[in-house]
Write a structure and sequence with these properties.
The protein is an alpha+beta fold. The protein has twelve helices and 22 strands.
Length: 650
């Protein structure tokens, strides 16, 4: 066939000059002739023996060559006019390796064909020039086999126009991206057995599909593009803008076509292997799925039918991966109810992702998943239980793409004393919503969860306490009476709860910042010092029995100390000329000197009291309770709050 679409044999039979011959003019008065009786021709047998033909299609960018050898055609009992079915027997060799056989009957008027069709080892590669119109890939190997019975009837009032019953297979297929050495897709055999196909009306029934040893090489290139996205030839852009229809105008929309009935009794997958490689990151990441196989039984387009799924394999050659449940992908309202599990996948091959996006190298860790997905009426309900065992990060990478979350703290908060992390992420969404993208929702949900953990770490710690534990606010500080470093019973219970929580989170340490309130503590310390001074003036020692003073003795001593004070400035105070005992006591106490060093010493005592109690049982080591520099407390409270903070690891 030439580039203009004309077959070379056509020109051989074109009339010379191209002019039509005309007969003598017919007479208008001529009498109509009586129709002649048609000829009857009978031929016992018409045949071709060992015929050879070569076909070259030059209409394609790269010409296609098809060679036919050893073609034998036999047509028996030929009678013209055609009234009886013609027995036909055709056999030929195609491109040296394949063979085609057709044996059956053909009825010319009306056209009807009943034949057995057999194709053996029809290689796909010679038809590559035709595939180049759709694929940006090379078919390196592969052959088609077909064996079945075909029925075609041009007139088919109560039956399908076309019926096929038989088997179809594609073996040893290998497809590679152009100019790439490795195969993108390959398989040993794909057999579709006991097909029953009807056309007009269309229906499909398949007893079994067996896919043996398929393999896929999934590669993200250095440009960030997936290799599979380049396999199909992209359509050229069009300059025509879509036609805008006026609201309410135009013809009414046609009724949607009825879905094609499809039934597949069983799909059997045998030893699928898939390799994933990401070349967009340095060093590149490579992992894979091996020995993946199983069955899907009972696929149907009927709404109420559910197919049983039972598939299993290994990720990274060692981690078991399973998919079990029920699906109905062929119905209009696709149904899914499956459980996907992954046990103990080694995370180290994904270390480059950790270095880039987490900001730390990955020393060790294993991932397990327990995922439950249910889709009905386009509503997705998903339960995602993520389990990570012995997650350990390495050195910080200072990657510009790393998350801003304090990763060591996050891990410390989530990892229990056995080195295990569990994250539960339920997700619900409407698949009809164009803004609902499951992958993005999962990542967003995970980041929101981790952000909340970092923002409210004591909330998580409170949940680790048996019986429900403390609230978040209560665990963030310990309250002291002004001037005191003694722990109350309530504070001791709070610290015991915090100790239990810290014992469950061995990757955390507690930072204790001793604090003082300049106003509350100074006033309390002044009162305490004044009391000691009064005892000393009365001759009683501090801590001795009867260290309290009588009202008369206290008043006498206060008046004595008050007399030593300079008189108050009448222009700045409204104090009466003769103050009360309480007034004098307040002025005397206010004159007691409390240095900043004494306030800081009180703050340290408070921090040490907390630390000593936490270390008392021996469950926490010294490096897990760290005393920070003391400082002023947050004002506005009746008591002095010593702040507690959580940090990553000792």
């Amino acid at each position: 066939m030439a580039p203009n679409g004309v077959v070379n044999y056509q020109t051989l039979f074109t009339p010379v000059g191209g002019k039509e011959t005309t007969g003598p003019p017919s007479s208008a008065n001529a009498k109509p002739e009586k129709p002649a009786k048609p000829w009857t021709i009978t031929v016992d047998e018409v045949g071709l023996k060992n015929y050879h033909a070569a076909y070259e299609d030059r209409t394609l960018a790269k010409p296609a060559h098809v060679d036919v050898d050893a073609m034998n055609l036999t047509v028996k009992d030929v009678q013209i006019p055609f009234k009886k079915p013609l027995p036909v027997d055709l056999s030929l060799k195609l491109n040296e390796t394949g063979s085609i056989g057709v044996k059956g009957t053909v009825t010319v008027e009306p056209l009807k064909v009943d034949a057995n069709l057999k194709l053996e080892h029809i290689e796909i590669r010679p038809f590559q020039p035709y595939l180049d119109q759709f694929l940006n890939a090379d078919v390196r190997d592969g052959a088609i086999d077909l064996d079945g019975a075909v029925h075609f009837a041009k007139e088919h009032a109560n039956a399908p126009m076309v019926q096929f019953q038989g088997n179809l297979g594609v073996s040893q297929l290998a497809i590679a991206e152009k100019n790439v050495l490795t195969d993108a897709v390959a398989w040993k055999a794909l057999n579709i057995n006991r097909i029953v196909l009807d056309v007009e009306p269309t229906a499909v029934k398949i007893a079994e599909i067996v896919w043996q040893e398929p393999s896929a090489q999934i590669v993200i290139g250095s440009d960030g593009k997936l290799n599979f996205s380049r396999l199909a030839v992209s359509s050229p852009p069009t300059d025509q803008a879509p036609v805008q229809k006026e609201p309410g105008g135009g013809q009414p929309q046609a009724k949607p076509a009825e879905p094609v009935p499809v039934t597949i009794d069983q799909v059997k997958l045998v030893k699928l292997a898939a390799t994933f490689e990401d070349q967009s990151i340095d060093p590149k990441v490579k992992t894979g799925l091996t020995d993946f196989g199983g069955t899907i039984k009972g696929l149907s387009s009927k709404q109420l039918k559910k197919a049983d799924v039972n598939l299993a394999g290994k990720v990274g050659r060692t981690a078991p991966f399973k998919i079990v449940g029920k699906i109905n992908p062929l119905s209009e309202d696709a149904f899914t109810d499956v459980v996907i599990t992954l046990a103990g996948m080694d995370l180290r091959p994904g270390g480059p992702y950790s270095g880039k996006y987490v900001g730390y190298g990955l020393s060790k860790g294993k991932l397990s998943l327990d995922l439950k997905y249910k889709v009905s009426q386009k509503i997705l309900e998903a339960e995602n239980l993520v389990h990570v065992d012995q997650l350990t990060f390495g050195e910080k990478t200072n990657s510009p793409d790393a998350t801003s979350l304090p990763v060591p703290l996050v891990v410390g908060l989530l990892k229990d004393r056995k080195g295990q992390i569990e994250i539960d992420m339920p997700i619900r969404g409407n698949l009809n919503d164009p803004d609902f993208k499951y992958g993005k929702v999962v990542i967003s949900t995970l980041l929101n969860l981790l952000t909340k953990v970092v923002a409210s770490p004591f909330s998580l710690m409170g949940k680790l306490v048996p019986g429900g534990g403390e609230d978040e606010e209560g665990l963030q500080f310990i309250e002291f009476q002004p001037g005191s470093a003694s722990l109350t019973d309530e504070d001791m219970k709070k610290l015991e709860a915090l100790e239990t929580a810290l014992d469950e989170r061995v990757g955390l340490r507690l930072d204790v910042k001793g604090t003082f309130d300049t106003t509350l503590d100074r006033t309390a310390l002044q009162a305490m010092k004044l009391h000691e001074q009064l005892l000393e003036m009365s001759g009683k020692s501090r801590g001795a029995t009867g260290d309290t003073l009588s009202s008369r003795d206290e008043q006498r001593l206060i008046e004595k100390l008050y007399a030593k004070l300079p008189p108050p400035d009448s222009t700045t105070t409204s104090e009466p000329i003769q103050p009360t005992v309480e007034g004098m006591k307040e002025r005397v106490a206010a004159a007691v000197l409390i240095t900043d060093a004494e306030l800081e010493a009180l703050a340290r005592q408070r921090a040490e009291a907390i630390r000593n109690l936490l270390l008392e049982s021996g469950r926490l080591t010294e490096e897990r309770v760290v005393l920070l520099d003391s400082g002023a407390a947050e004002s506005g409270h009746e008591k002095v709050r010593t702040q507690l903070a959580l940090a990553a690891g000792p």
